[in-house]
Amino acid sequence: MKHYIEITLMDNADFNLFSLWSKVFQQIHLGLVEIQDDQGQVPIGLSFPEYVIGDKYSILGSKLRLFANDEAVLKQFDAVKWLARLSDYVHSTSIRPVPEKIIGYAIYQREQPKTSPERLARRYARRLAEREKRQEVDSDYENALTLYSKRNYQTINSSFIRLKSLSSDNNFCLWIKKIPVDIQASTANFSSYGLSSVSSVPEF
Questions:
Q1: Any residues with CB less than 8 A from the CB of 166 and at least 6 apart, and which?
Q2: Which tens digit of pLDDT belongs to each residue from 92-126?
Q3: Contact present, 49 and 104 (Cβ < 8 Å)
Q4: CATH numbers and ranges of domains, the chain
Q5: C-alpha–C-alpha distance, residues 177 and 106, integer Å
């Protein structure tokens, strides 16, 4: 990855950092969906330069970087346009070359814990509605979520951003795991969230 822009989420009285991340990342995701190919892949990878990996939980920080091999890709994406309605709450740099001296590489991938109460409740509600040939699943989901939330599940230490699904309009947690790597891995495959389980981005 040769070029990047950096977005900083600023302190403000209107939104806490957690809520602002939801709004910012939702807009970035919308923009990436617009440029994805037939396989749902995009040429832009994301990193969180202030991400801190913790034993019990990780911290996302307040910065987001968008990387691309070609400067024209970042120009075409136009992050400022997608974040226009949040311009009072974020600061975006111009497109910059990645520094020659970097500290390493990292893979930022989506983590989907199978044991989360939300995931189990959603699956239960969907199966129940299919079995009873109903379209409505909201009440089933709420009832199941109450039940599953009372149980103990293995927790993960990755950080997350709460988003709204573009297809179902349901809220969900996008868990983001950081994996430091020693060498640059493939930079060709990123999802419409700018994440990948195989492609790395530079750290500096």
A1: 29, 30, 33
A2: 999 999 999 999 999 999 998 766 667 677 777 77
A3: no
A4: 3-112+157-203 (3.30.70.2540), 117-149 (no CATH)
A5: 10
3-state secondary structure of 74: helix
The per-residue DSSP string of 36-69 comes to --TTS-BS-EEE-TT-B--SS--B--SEEEEEES
Chain Cα centroid distance, residue 80: 18
Nearest to 203 by CA among 55, 57, 46, 72: 46
The DSSP secondary-structure symbol of 94 reads P
Indicate the pTM of the whole model: 0.81
Sign of CA dihedral 84, 26, 39, 46: positive
Half-sphere exposure of 185 (CA within 13 A, CB side): 18
pLDDT in tens, 136-150: 556 677 777 777 666
Owner of token pair 């009832």: 143
